[in-house]
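REQUEST
  id: r-88c1
  op: predict_structure
  target: DBR1 enzyme
  payload:
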Amino acid sequence: MKVAVAGCCHGALDKMYETLELLQRRHNVRPDLLLCCGDFQAVRNEADLRCMAVPAKYRHMQTFYRYYSGEKKAPVLTVFIGGNHEASNHLQELPYGGWVAPNIYYLGYAGVVRFRGVRIGGISGIFKSHDYRKGHFECPPYNQQTIRSAYHVRNIEVFKLKQLKRPIDIFMSHDWPRSIYHYGNKKQLLKMKSFFRQEVESNTLGSPAASELLHHLKPTYWFSAHLHVKFAAFMQHQTNSKEELPKATKFLALDKCLPHRDFLQIIDVEHDPNAGDSLEYDAEWIAVLKATNSLVNVTQSAWNMPENNGLHAKWDYSATEEAIKEVLEELNHNLKIPCNFTLTAACYDPSKPQKQVEPVHTINPQTTEFCAQFGLTDINDRIQQAKEEGSVRGEHEEEEEEDMDSTGSAEEPSEYNTDNSGLSSINPDEIMLDEEGGDEDLSTCSVDPSPDHPPDFSASFSDIRIMPDSMAVSSDDAMDSTNEELEKSGVSKQVEEKSLSERPLKRIGGNENGNSGIKKIKRRNQAIYAAEDEDKTE
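RESPONSE
  id: r-88c1
  status: 200
  body:
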């Protein structure tokens, strides 16, 4: 089947789907599935805009609300993960995944689903070492700290994914796995993004958590976005025994949405021709969620996942065949994900702007139903209980008091060495947070691709498949020559604060409708992973 993969779409759903329709009209190419690697921006209304970690001048409604309201429907099944520019309050309603609009499915903090027999996994957010070992404690309305920490990857999600034993076909992360640049055309990457050089040479660019998952899961494909540059790599994994068959991962990072040419890629993926056309639960993943349910944490306290170090009675939470069989029996072997999308917030009305509306903490009925069906903890319900007991509120107030007395936050101990505070490269793709800046508005991009640059669909990942199995990274020159073929592949298109007061949680059911320094939100991993840049950059 044909799978379209998109980079950061930044809420430009109309333009993204128009691009796909254009492919069909001009080249008779119609994808069966669309994957988006974060910065999806599922913004429903003005309150959602206030939950995005971007300066006010970059908060544009874009076009997702039209799909949320039912005015439009996604023409192709769309599955996405979260990035670092999201309406975090909306995605937080669906920690285990769910429909954000008809035919548009969010994978949750981490998740695995199946489509036509193809196993698709992903992890949302970006890596930040000092938040990595915390629980999911944030809830709207956010303050200046939690509006960012809400999208930071947590160790429990990585731990859950590492319990998987069965093969993964496709995996998505927003930020790149650390070190993946050593397996592609590094010279070309540094030619396009010269400010990556110091991080690449010091091997600090990218997420160490994603790298850990890459080595463990060994998926056939791995797709990322975040750095706004197209980059392909081919990683041959080491085998643990002579009996184990060699595995390799085809990695591809996509550029942001229009007007960049490389934000979209079409690949051919082997699938089960006898499988249905519905999105399905993955039985092993459900079994892992059930096994790890006791590990759910909604506090800010740093904690480590169980491991075989003599300190934990249990450290293996992988799903047994019996546990997987039990899940199948619970579902009567019907793994189809129910189409139970429900409106949980008022939709944006251009004729009636509501600029003063504030976000509220909402429990989504999809999550309630999912947790009840599989006996899982509703994270948002647990957060609300903790708030009522005063534990989360007390910790939150203490943190705010500490922030007022200091200019930065101390980093929690981490198993990852992420201190690259000495780096000083500048990324021209940054979003400037100063209100007087003259950066180009991200919302301005042309609708149609330029006829002067027609897309090339002749290659795709078929080029990667014919690469020698023995290919390994021995030098930059060797990899550069092989990766020239990778760079030719694919479909290219030219189409592109204050702190809020607390409010009680809202449960939705049925069909209810003056700092002189310049702060920056950075779209590259140097700032994301720099330990001491917490209050300055992301």
